[in-house]
Design a protein that fits this description.
CATH superfamily: Transmembrane di-heme cytochromes, Chain C
Number of helices: 8
CATH architecture: Up-down Bundle
Order of helices and strands: EEHHHHEHHHHEE
Strand order of the largest sheet: 1-2-4
Largest sheet: 3 strands, antiparallel
CATH class: Mainly Alpha
Radius of gyration: 22 Å
CATH topology: Fumarate Reductase Cytochrome B subunit
């Protein structure tokens, strides 16, 4: 806990939470902007996707064993609590939370789920296109393709249909994730205004003020 001209401040977000948050922002942005062009997936897109997946796995683990404000048990509530907070926020009567608010906690979980599904469908789509783990060569897959070709064209057509569906699901999930991010940014802006607190700066410094209309739950 520190103190300055603005009053007592609490150390809320630990370094791993802050680093993971901003690293995830950068990795997703790179992955989204380097998506498929003319049916080909760039190596940059693949690596950015691996990084996103790694951060998501780490954040889930940290949400179980990390410090208080990083744990899911501190901010995950039911949908009713989240909706009630949003209504109160729109009315200007929302309770201020030191950690994530109920709506913020719901958004964290929604983003983790959406990101995880995006990464998984991306990995499956890449395997279907004949790429091995970490973007290595296709020789083994190509050899298998020649062997499978003897089994008939219909099986190949069914496989192509499945790959196309998975690729479309991957793209749709990426867009859903982007939409959630936009909603997240709008929610942060609204909460910052309502509580007179710069939440972006808090995620950089890790500190939030201790005084004010606050819930420490």
């Amino acid at each position: 806990m520190t103190s300055n001209a603005n009053g007592t401040r609490l150390a809320v977000w630990d370094p791993l939470v802050r680093f993971g948050h901003w690293a995830l922002v950068i990795a997703f942005a790179v992955a989204y902007l380097s998506g498929e062009e003319e049916g080909e997936t760039s190596e940059l897109h693949e690596w950015a996707g691996y990084i996103v997946g790694g951060i998501v796995v780490w954040r889930i683990v940290w949400g179980l064993v990390g410090p208080r404000y990083a744990r899911f048990s501190d901010f995950v509530t039911g949908p009713i609590g989240s909706l009630r907070y949003l209504v109160n926020l729109m009315n200007g009567h929302a309770k201020r939370y030191v950690g994530h608010s109920p709506a913020g906690g719901a958004m964290v979980m929604a983003l983790l789920l959406s990101l995880a599904l995006t990464v998984v469908t991306g990995l499956v789509a890449e395997q279907g296109e004949g790429k091995t783990s970490l973007g290595q060569g296709r020789a083994g897959i190509v050899a298998q393709a020649f062997a499978d070709e003897e089994k008939g064209v219909r099986a190949g057509q069914r496989g192509e249909g499945n790959e196309s569906a998975i690729g479309e699901a991957h793209a749709a999930l990426a867009n859903i994730t982007l939409a959630l991010i936009v909603l997240h940014v709008l929610g942060v802006a609204l909460a910052s205004f309502a509580h007179r607190e710069n939440l972006v700066r808090a995620m950089i410094t890790g500190e939030k003020r201790a005084n004010g209309n606050t819930s420490d739950a």
